[in-house]
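FORM 12-B: Structure-to-Sequence Request
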């Protein structure tokens, strides 16, 4: 091949790769940006873990709670990015997982088994609730999930004999896992929640990038066409909502371990709204961006209290949300991914 042909071929290939990356970033799916996304899913939590382990106990606790919130934000992203539906009930599902975790630990069930049982309990209830929920669309879905978020704290108070009601419920302390102390601001807690985020993040990424994930997008964007081709659209949507509930159940179980005390006030409807805002700010179709959303709603406010009045944090959140909206439907993740894609293109080797 002559030098002139090589000079034309390589730039053409570079442009083709760049176009594939940009298309993948725009849709949030596809093979064009897989390596970067997998890298970010692992690297960002590791950076958070390193910062937390080298910081004070209060900072470590705030990062642990923010990472727990990130798992719940991810559950919102699954529904919003997959089905284009609004879920305001993530806080309610977190409450189910948290109280289930506390109850199982109270009966001296081992920690890991309690986590599994808490997630299974939330998943089962989420599956039952998902069956009527998927029959709704748009604002009606948002309203139904908001009702769920609003009613869960009332149910906690009503079931006082089980949950402790308005008096709250303590989570057993002195828990260990593989010899590490779990609970509160201990390093083991931060390691546990960080590893959990990476595991469920990679699992969610694999699901959404699989054939099933492509079917989910098809159902969301062209449900009648998908039904014509034999896709069981209702089953697909129930599966998405159930997976979302499972993630919230895990977040709730980890939240119980982290804070050590549960009360209805921790799971008010505002929590579900904040978790949804976290998904919008980060970017609903980027798994790694869930950690960004979790940090913004769970870590940033606690760190700003030393520098500004609590009332001013609302203004700051409004500004961040405005920036995310201006960034487009992809949230803050999209411009960051575009920057990385441009960097990748510029670093590609050119022929000599």
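FORM 12-B RESPONSE
SEQUENCE OUT:
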């Amino acid at each position: 091949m002559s030098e002139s042909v090589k000079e034309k071929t390589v730039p053409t290939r570079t442009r083709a790769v760049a176009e594939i990356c940009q298309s993948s970033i725009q849709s949030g799916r596809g093979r064009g940006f897989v390596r970067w996304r997998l890298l970010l899913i692992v690297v960002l939590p590791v950076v958070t873990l390193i910062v937390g382990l080298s910081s004070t106990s209060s900072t470590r606790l705030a990062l642990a709670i923010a990472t727990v919130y990130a798992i719940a934000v991810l559950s919102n992203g699954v529904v919003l990015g997959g089905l284009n539906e609004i879920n305001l009930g993530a806080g309610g599902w977190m409450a189910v997982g948290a109280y289930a975790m506390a109850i199982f630990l109270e009966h001296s069930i081992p920690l890991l088994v309690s986590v599994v049982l808490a997630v299974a309990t939330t998943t089962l209830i989420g599956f039952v609730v998902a069956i009527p929920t998927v029959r709704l669309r748009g604002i009606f879905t948002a309203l139904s999930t908001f009702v769920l978020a609003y009613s869960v704290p009332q149910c906690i108070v009503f079931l006082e004999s089980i949950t402790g009601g308005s008096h709250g419920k303590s989570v057993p302390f002195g828990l260990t896992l593989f010899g590490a102390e779990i609970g509160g601001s201990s390093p083991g807690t931060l390691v546990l929640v960080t590893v959990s985020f990476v595991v469920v993040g990679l699992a969610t990424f694999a699901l959404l990038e699989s054939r099933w994930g492509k079917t989910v997008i098809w159902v969301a964007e062209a449900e009648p066409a998908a039904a014509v081709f034999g896709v069981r659209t209702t089953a697909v949507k129930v599966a998405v909502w159930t997976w979302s509930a499972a993630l919230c159940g895990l977040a709730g179980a980890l939240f119980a371990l982290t804070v050590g005390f549960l009360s209805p006030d921790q799971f008010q409807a505002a929590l579900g709204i904040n978790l949804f805002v976290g998904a919008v700010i980060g970017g609903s179709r980027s798994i790694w961006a869930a950690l960004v959303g979790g940090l913004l709603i769970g870590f940033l406010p606690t760190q700003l209290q030393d520098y500004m009045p609590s009332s001013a944090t609302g203004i700051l959140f409004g500004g961040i949300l405005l920036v995310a909206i201006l960034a487009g439907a992809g949230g803050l993740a999209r411009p960051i991914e575009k920057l990385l894609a441009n960097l990748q293109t510029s670093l590609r080797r050119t022929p000599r």
